[in-house]
Amino acid sequence: MDTILILIQLNDGYVRTYADQHYGRIRGKNPVTGVDPAIIFLIVFGCLVGGFFIICIFGTLILGVFDNGTRCTRRSFRNREFNNLSPL
């Protein structure tokens, strides 16, 4: 019975694991920076996803401008050819 109580007391407190000893504390805040790793992940992931969407939006706008420009030039060439036709 005493061993069960000792195990319960050990599990209630923070027990250092092999990974904690060799790689630093994994759970909770980083003792050096005092920041939760999940917060850092969310900030970095948010910047990557946000940057991707910004690039997609600007890429769509740029391609739309070029597409509109080529349509206008094709239309002007077509109008010139139509105006230069001699009547039969």
Write the layout of secondary structure elements.
Blueprint: H1 2-12, H2 18-23, H3 37-84
Keywords: Membrane, Transmembrane, Transmembrane helix
Transmembrane segments: 38-66
Question: How do you describe this structure in short?
Answer:
This protein is an all-alpha fold and 88 residues long. The protein is 74% helix and 0% strand. It has helices at residues 2-12, 18-23, 37-84.
Into which percent range does the helicity of residues fall? Answer: over 70%
Total beta strands? 0
- Cα-based radius of gyration, to the nearest Å: 33 Å
Distance between the termini: 113 Å
Note poorly predicted spans: none
How many H/I helices?
3
**H/E element sequence:** HHH
Structural class: mainly alpha
**Strand residue percentage:** under 5%
Largest sheet: none
Total domain units: 1
- Determine the mean pLDDT: 69
Report the principal-axis shape.
rod-shaped
Keywords: Membrane, Transmembrane, Transmembrane helix
Task: Provide keyphrases for this structure.
88 residues; mainly alpha; rod-shaped; transmembrane; membrane
Describe this protein's structure.
- The protein has one domain (2-84).
- It is built from three helices and no strands.
- The chain has helices spanning 2-12, 18-23, 37-84.
- The protein is rod-shaped.
- The relative contact order is 0.04.
- The mean pLDDT is 69.
- Keywords: Membrane, Transmembrane, Transmembrane helix.
- The chain crosses the membrane at residues 38-66.
